[in-house]
Amino acid sequence: MASSTGVERLQVDFVGELRDLGPEDVLTFGREADLTLDEDNQYLHRLLGRLEHRQGVWWLINTGSRIPLVVQDLTSRSQVTLAPGREMAMTFPNAAVQFQAGRSNYEFEVSLGIENESLFADLDDLADDGATIGIGDLPLTDDQRRLIVVLAEQTLRSSSVEIQLPTNRGAAHRLGWTITRFNRKLDNVCERLSKAGVSGLRGGAGVLANDRRTTLVDHAIQSGLVTVDDLALLEEPAN
Known about the structure:
The chain has helices at residues 2-5, 142-157, 168-175, 179-195, 209-223; strands at 10-14, 17-21, 26-30, 35-36, 49-54, 57-62, 69-73, 79-82, 87-89, 94-101, 104-112. It is of the alpha+beta class. The strands form two sheets. It has a six-stranded antiparallel sheet with strand order 2-1-11-10-7-8, covered by helices on one side. The model is unreliable at 1-5 and 114-136 (pLDDT under 50).
């Protein structure tokens, strides 16, 4: 499919750090690479992988020796595991590349065909038939959805209209995550929704940490991004 489309542009998003690539570009990622994921984690390969363009197709190459890469389609539940030393054509228009190094989990997003635009264009432009795509239709990874659900859990279980939040450490413990992983995932999902047009989720002057979590939960519930049915996600084993 990718070879027939001849996609030339690729955009990579690692917790809000954007890289817009053209066919002449090669992007390496790892502990000491073009895209530095975590320079302090000695379990992470210096060069874990790279993205490159060949004959009209973008390729993901796992150059590591022991860390598999999981490529998850953000518009479905499809995923592919890429073993060390292997490569694959990037055919998912929007995908998350996920992997674990030591006790830390990492993720960056890849979008095909983006040219000098934000990774998430205006939602109106994404509709095939002119209908507006709402926030509730925004595709999320499993971890992103579980993070929102754990923050919204008390509110979803309560009949009160007031937003009730757990502490970040309590939410991380509920998910079986480290606080570092939780904070990284929270930054990622807030950045993603910000690009989709939700205000009040970016850090900075006048935006308190508790305020953005309240805004996140309020928008997620009001838009239908998460519902009571999603509470079942919290009963799934931590990964």
